[in-house]
Amino acid sequence: MLDHEDQELIDKFNQKVLTGEKDECWLWVGGRNSSNPNRTHGVIRRDGTGKAIKAHRLSWAIAHNKNPTKLLVVQTCNNKLCVNPAHLSTTTVPPRGSAKGSKNGSAKLNEAQAMEIFLAKGLLKQIAFIYDITPSTVYNIKQKKLWKHIHTKG
Fold first, then answer.
1. How would DSSP label each residue in 115-134?
2. Number of H helices, E strands in the chain
3. Pairs from 116-123 (Cβ < 8 Å, separation ≥ 24)
4. CB of 144 within 8 A of CB of 151?
5. Exposed, middle or buried by CB within 10 Å (0-12, 13-18, 19+), for 60?
């Protein structure tokens, strides 16, 4: 993803990061994509195109020297302004082809996704972000309060 032409972008990125110890959050102090503090990620604009790039995705790309296309990059520390590569992990974005539940025509999830959520390891917020649902929905699926019928199939 990154080559010598991107050095200016990398330098610009590094100027907007407050680094700390290896295990601490490295805070993005540059631009943000939202005024809502619960949904705010750091963003940086590529010169010339003006295209916004999420700062944590760029941090991952710099650390791994590859583009995280088709990967969801998430902060394992749950700090949306953290760009420490040690706090970033990737997962594939779940397919959205058939996003309707079999029992509820307005459901955002299908049975397979509900079972994936039930079996998923990790923080509720992280799982919720991946599936574009609320942490309380994840909790209720894990507690068998929602999608109960998927547990009785044989």
1. HHHHH--S-HHHHHHHHTS-
2. 5, 6
3. 117/141, 117/142, 118/142, 118/144, 118/147, 118/150, 118/151, 123/76, 123/78
4. yes
5. buried
> Is pLDDT above 90 for 63?
yes
pLDDT tens digits, residue range 15-41? 999 999 999 999 999 988 766 555 677
- Residue 56 φ/ψ, nearest 5 degrees: -70, -30
**Rounded to whole angstroms, how far apart are CA atoms 140 and 150?**
13
Chain Cα centroid distance, residue 31: 18
Q: What angle do CA 67, 71, 74 make, to 5 degrees?
A: 105
Q: How far is C-alpha 65 from the chain's CA centre?
A: 19
Alpha-carbon separation of residue 5 from 31, 47, 55, 57, 71 (angstroms): 22, 11, 18, 18, 23
Give φ, ψ of 11 to 5 degrees: -60, -45
